[in-house]
Amino acid sequence: MKEIRVLHVDTERGWRGGQQQAYYLHQGLCELGVHSDFVCRKGAEMQARLNRDGLPVKPLSFLGELDVFAAFRLACYAWAEHINILHLHSSHALGWGILAKLFIPSIKIVAARRVDFPVSTNLLSRFKYMGRATDAVVAISENIRRVLLNDGVAAQKIHLIHSGVDVHRFGNDRVPVDFREKWQIPPDSVLIGTIAAFVFHKDYQNYIRAAAKALSRNPKLHFMAVGDGERLPVMKELAQELGIGDKICFAGMQKEVGGFLKAFDIFVLASKKEGLGTSVLDAMSVGLPIIGTKAGGIPEMIEPGISGLLVEKRNPEALAEAMLKLAEDPDLRKRLGEGALSRGKHFSKERMTQMNLELYKKLL
For 3, which DSSP code? Predict the structure, then answer.
């Protein structure tokens, strides 16, 4: 069997769940002694974190997925490093990698698909996922696999590999002693929190409207939202309009979320679309009881009544009922938290890394 020499490519400047997954995979392969390298944009958060942790990284300038000069630079680097697999971690990265393959036809292309949106009907998108240049597409949930099949991607090209998390990542994290005082959270309240970007598909409107309905019946609840994004100002306005501005803390983007997770009594992910939702897995890793919507890959993680509760998406009434049910039953919170802790071990970063490694072996 050929030696596996993989080059990961990510084009995002910031840091979200997809970047964390690409990082975990690169880190895991390096720990296993596999030749793994990483290309990202110059100045990206990925570059900073990989440099910080002493992991291989090569920053390259990138003007867009049709940037032929960037593709040539990527191909030159891959050729010099004897790379035989390009793992592309975003749609733009996939376009970049396919252009690079024009210069190295023998290289294998693996595309990561982390969203459950249908593949765009434009010719470029369909070529990227359905064309012969792409050898494999990794779907991070069964739901995404179904979407890809419905869009016409060949079944033999799709490989289901669930995202993974470091189940011990927050083991040493503690809730700061002044946490509730800092965020003006009453000491006797039940804290219901979420960690998600303020983007359309995370459906913060659902979360905030459900919070208002739950508070109308139990004023001792308090809410927190950790994240940033384009819809944050609108959601702050909505909270004020609903009269719960003093009952929900908007914590903004936080690089270290372990202390927040351990401060929550209940975790909620209110999305209307979701590839998988690794913030749920992070919550599981600290033993939080979870409420999730029946959106995307979320039901693949949560076992109703065992590791959490599932409600219909876009249904604030149902979400509020689930919030109240858990808030008013400490024993149920404890039991579901224990179930979540056990369930989360199925989604470890080590398992995810090993499954990607097996895919690379098949391609070579």
Answer: P
What are the Cα distances from residue 7, in Å, to 50, 64, 107, 322?
A: 14, 19, 10, 44
Element (H, E) at 130: helix 123-130
With a cut of 80, say whether residue 151 has pLDDT above it. Answer: yes
pLDDT digits (tens, 9 = 90+) for 321-348: 999 999 999 999 999 999 999 999 889 9
Interval 265-311: pLDDT, tens: 999 999 999 988 889 999 999 999 999 999 989 999 999 999 999 99
pLDDT for res 1: 67
The CA distances from residue 219 to 204, 209, 261, 354, in Å, are 20, 14, 22, 47
Asked if 290 and 308 count as a contact pair (C-beta separation under 8 A), the reply is: yes
The CB-based long-range contact list for 171-174 (8 Å cut-off, 24+ gap) reads 173/256, 173/258, 173/259, 173/261, 173/262, 174/259, 174/262
Burial 78-101 (b: 16+ CB within 10 A, else e): beeeebbbbbbbbbbbbbbbbbbb
Q: Which CATH architecture has domain 179-346?
A: 3-Layer(aba) Sandwich (3.40)
Into which CATH architecture does domain 5-164+348-363 fall?
3-Layer(aba) Sandwich (3.40)
